[in-house]
Amino acid sequence: MAKWRWGRRHDPGKRTLAGGTAGGVEPAQQVSGSGNANATHGGIAVTGIYNDHSSVVLPPEAVRPVSEVKARPGLDNLPYRTAHFVGRAAELDRLDAAMKKTGGVWLQAVHGLGGVGKSTLAVHWAATRARKYRLAPIRWISADSAASVEQSLAALATALQPAASKALTVEALAEYGMQWLATHSGWLLILDNVNHLADIAPLLARLPHGRFLITSRLATVWHDAAEVIRLDALQPDESLALLTRIANAGGGRDLSGAAELCADLGHLPLAVEQAAAYLAENPLLTPTTYLDLLRQNPGPLHQQGGEGFTVAERTIARIWRA
C-alpha cells in the first residue's frame, strides 16, 4: 500500500486524516475524529464533516491518481430507449459519418423544438450505432443547468470509485470526474437539453479532445461543432407508423382518422406518442373521436397562457388537456 498522509495527527479528540493502518483495518485509509476535515490528493480536494464516533475507511484503490483508474464494464448510463423509434435515417447516418472523422474535438449538436425527439435520437444512436466505434464509457449528462452537469460528473466519479463518494463532496466528486475524463480517451458524453452554453463551457474548455453529442433547443451557438443537425417533425408516413405501433400493438384496432390526427398534431413525435398511448389505454376510442376531443373548447387553453406558447408547446398542452 502506498504510504502517504492527508494531514497530521492532532491531539486526542481532534480529527485524524492519516495514511497507513488505522483501527486494525489494512490496507485502508481511515478518516476519523470530529469537526471539518479537508485534504488534497492528486489534485482532488477532500472535504467532510465527521463526529467523534464516526470513521470513513477508504481502500487504496479509492485514492489512486485518476490517470490510473480504468473504465470498468457497466459504466454506461443511457436512459430508457423506446421500442417505437421510427424514421430519422438521414440524421443517424450523419452522426455515423461525423464519427468517422479524426482529429480534434468531436462535437455534434442536435437542435430543434421541444418534443421533436432530440433526446430520443441521441439515445437510439448511442445504443444501436455508437458501439461499433468502441466508445467506452458512454455517459448521459443532464445539462439543463450547471448544477445538473455537476451532479452528472459526480455520478461518473461515484461509478468509477464508489468508495470515494463516502468522503468527497459533490464538488470534489465532480472535479474527480472531470480529471478522469481529461486523462482518458475513447469516451462519449451526451450533453442532453443544454439551455445555456455557459453551463457546459468548462467541459468543452478542459476536455479539448473529447467526444460530445449535444441536444438543445438552441440553434445559433454551435459554431465550433463539426456537425449541426436540425431535427424537424416526422414525415407524415413516419408519424402514422409511430401512432399505429403504439395504439394498435395488439392488432385489429379501428384507426380511422389516424392520418388526420397526426397532421393535426403537426407530426410532432412527443404529441403523437402521447395521443397514441391514450388511444391504447382506451380501446373504444378512435383517432377521429380523439381528434374531436382536441378540438373541443380551445378557448380556455389560450386564456391559460397559450399566447406565450410555441407551436410545439401549444400542441403538447392540447394533448395533456384532453
Task: For the structure shown, list the relevant keywords.
322 residues, disordered N terminus, three-stranded antiparallel β-sheet, alpha/beta, Rossmann fold, 10 strands, 3 domains, 16% strand, five-stranded parallel β-sheet
Question: What is the topological layout?
Answer:
Blueprint: E1 16-18, E2 29-32, E3 35-41, E4 44-50, E5 55-58, H1 89-99, E6 106-111, H2 118-128, E7 138-142, H3 146-160, H4 170-182, E8 188-194, H5 197-206, E9 211-216, E10 227-230, H6 236-247, H7 258-264, H8 269-281, H9 287-295, H10 299-303, H11 311-321
Parallel strand pairs: 6-9, 6-10, 7-8, 8-9
Antiparallel strand pairs: 1-2, 2-5, 3-4
Helix pairs in contact: 3-4, 6-7, 6-8, 7-9, 8-11
Residue share in helix: 25-40%
Biggest sheet: strand arrangement? 7-8-9-6-10
Q: Major sheet: size, sense and barrel closure?
A: 5 strands, parallel
Number of strands: 10
Short note summarizing the structure:
This protein has helices spanning 89-99, 118-128, 146-160, 170-182, 197-206, 236-247, 258-264, 269-281, 287-295, 299-303, 311-321, and strands at residues 16-18, 29-32, 35-41, 44-50, 55-58, 106-111, 138-142, 188-194, 211-216, 227-230. The chain is α/β, with parallel strands linked by helices and 322 residues long.
Q: What would your notes on this structure say?
A:
The chain has helices at 89-99, 118-128, 146-160, 170-182, 197-206, 236-247, 258-264, 269-281, 287-295, 299-303, 311-321; strands spanning 16-18, 29-32, 35-41, 44-50, 55-58, 106-111, 138-142, 188-194, 211-216, 227-230. It is of the alpha/beta class and 322 residues long. It has 3 domains: 1-60, no CATH class; 89-230, Rossmann fold; 236-321. It is elongated and about 65 Å long.
